[in-house]
Amino acid sequence: MQITQDAVVLIHYTLTDDSGKTIDSSSGGEPLAYLHGNGNLIPGLERALEGKQSGDAVSVKISPAEGYGEYDKALVQSIPKRALKGIGNVYVGMQLQAQSDQGARAVTVTHVVGDMVTIDANHPLAGQNLNFEVKIEDVRAATEEELAHGHVHGPGGHHHG
């Protein structure tokens, strides 16, 4: 079966940056299961996998525009520590949830100087090329429940509990 809209796809993958450093990998674990064409993967990777089938291997470099977006300096801001009410020890690399016009956003603390904290709402991989090595393990039709929910259930997928 080919990978098409609403197929359930199981993949093993390794993601590296342009220097060859591994950012993420499913190696040694369960394959990642996703519902194709439902925004469960970044757009560039879904496009690269379209039409492939079980057993295929895919090597693809995805630009920031097709991945997590370009780095946007407007998403970096300095705020006073007192704005982070109820958060004790603020440190560089800390992940926080911030409310924005678009709802809750994950932000990362990138600087702490005196009473000022710099937070960055860019995705940690924004502005980077993403190099994927993908091995397609299985492709199957989605169940009606998976289609209704927009994601995979069962092994490698989402469990409602």
Describe this structure in words.
The protein has 161 residues and is mainly β. The protein has two domains: 7-68 and 126-149, Chitinase A, domain 3; 73-120, Beta Barrel (Thrombin, subunit H). It has helices at 43-49, 144-149; strands at residues 7-16, 22-25, 32-35, 57-62, 76-80, 95-100, 103-113, 116-120, 130-141.
Q: Round the Cα radius of gyration to an integer and report it.
A: 19 Å
Q: What is the 3D shape? A: elongated
Q: From the 3D structure, determine the CATH topology of the largest domain.
A: Chitinase A, domain 3
Domains (count) = 2
What percent strand?
35-45%
Helix percentage? under 10%
* Contiguous uncertain segments of 5+ residues: none
Which structural traits does this protein have?
elongated, Thrombin, subunit H, mainly beta, 161 residues, single chain, 2 domains, Chitinase A, domain 3, 39% strand
Topology of this structure?
Elements: E1 7-16, E2 22-25, E3 32-35, H1 43-49, E4 57-62, E5 76-80, E6 95-100, E7 103-113, E8 116-120, E9 130-141, H2 144-149
Antiparallel strand pairs: 1-2, 1-3, 1-9, 4-9, 5-8, 6-7, 7-8
Summarize the structure.
By secondary structure, the protein is mostly beta strands. The protein contains two helices and nine strands, in the order βββαββββββα. The strands form two sheets. Strands 1, 2, 3, 4 and 9 form a five-stranded antiparallel sheet that branches. It has a four-stranded antiparallel sheet with strand order 5-8-7-6, with no helix packed on it.
